[in-house]
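User: What would this chain look like folded?
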Amino acid sequence: MRIERVQIEEGFLDGLDVSFGPGLNVIIGERGTGKTSLIELVRFCLGVQGYTSDSTKRSLDHALSILGSGQVTVTLSDGEHETLVTRTASDDSPRASG
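Assistant: Here's the prediction, encoded as structure tokens.
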């Protein structure tokens, strides 16, 4: 399973639509342009926990502050099938299309 696309509606990264290719992908940019925010939103959308309760809380707080009342959608692919995972700040857990 690989991340194929990330779409963000509203919040700090409103309108961001990033597609990833197979293999290694690199996110580059100046300080404050949203690199960490993108990663934290992907983690939030997929429901990925941190290694400690403190890191989980920091990650969640960061994602929620960036997302606001918006929504993040991550498209996953296994090469044959696509699954859309979507989450808003008010969702207790991710919602998947399949």
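The mean pLDDT is 93. If you want, I can go into more detail on any region.
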